[in-house]
Design goal:
Blueprint (H helix, E strand, L loop, with lengths): L1 H6 L6 H8 L3 H10 L1 H7 L1 E5 L5 E5 L1 H17 L3
Antiparallel strand pairs: 1-2
Amino acid sequence: MKQLSEACSGLLPYGVIEDAVEGDLEALICVVEHYYSFTNYKCQRTGIDENGHRIYYIDPEHRRNVEFSLMKAVTKFKL
């Protein structure tokens, strides 16, 4: 497990990608965690608060959809 958590930082090792493609849950979680910052950036929304100031927030529903789509795409990936 320690090796897998180390793999989540930096580049994803080929072995983790292979395991994720085969449907290993821990490897899929590692891939999702690897893209955490990117998915947050893509799911960022702009709103206006009660004082009229612009605020930025992460849309949790959209983020779940993006993560689900990522997991679905990884399992269909051809090595």
